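Q&A log
Question type: sequence-to-structure
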Amino acid sequence: MGKNVLLEINHMSKGFGELDVIRDISLSVSEGEVVSIIGPSGSGKSTLLRCATMLEKMDGGELIYLGEKAAWMEEDRCVYAGKSRLKEIHKYFGLVFQNFNLFPHYTVLKNIIDAPVCAAGVPKREAVERARMLLEQLGLSDKEQAYPCQLSGGQQQRVSIARALALQPRILFFDEPTSALDPELTGEVLKVIRQLAKEHMTMIIVTHEMQFARELSDRIIFMEQGVIRAQGTPEEIFTSQEERVREFIGKFAG
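Response status: OK
Response body:
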């Protein structure tokens, strides 16, 4: 029996004014799969993620989580499910941003328990227990009463991963999780993502870390100018004969 498909995107499109940022993208992600999305800046990678997580509204296409439609086409326009449905669908995924997006005036612990308690109705004691377990897992047990400004970038990013995991999502999205970090701190965040992959967490990662994408992904998607130019196993992508893919990867491999 095949693995559950957790996310399905069919013919997604998104434009800003005259600019078509995403043009007719379709992809699906199965349970336990790690998918990396690579490509030059401005190719639509982050917009794809923002549309998939409903931070941006798609102009066209279909968005399905665990078989439930979040958005679909009616006549010529894209419509979204009702508020309460979308609230449920939101619980299926977590999102880690490139610049952490932590609440500066909350402690680390409060940053992590805020959404489970306020948005998901998790009892506070349970949320705190879960948060402490995650902090321990991520090597931050001694930081629960610290504020974001007292942490390094790598620690802040690990807190934001803990915050996303606290809602126990089925899929985790990462939008260039290391691009705001210096190389030394990048390593500690990648280590956490590696650990999650070992635990078979389903992840979609927009990244510039080619070596990391190569060793961790089940599948790599190469995007350019709003379309998927190539996709395949790391082996297929890194030995691709397609000129654009080779040229792009060559820049990083050099």
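Response note: The CA atoms of residues 60 and 127 lie 37 Å apart.
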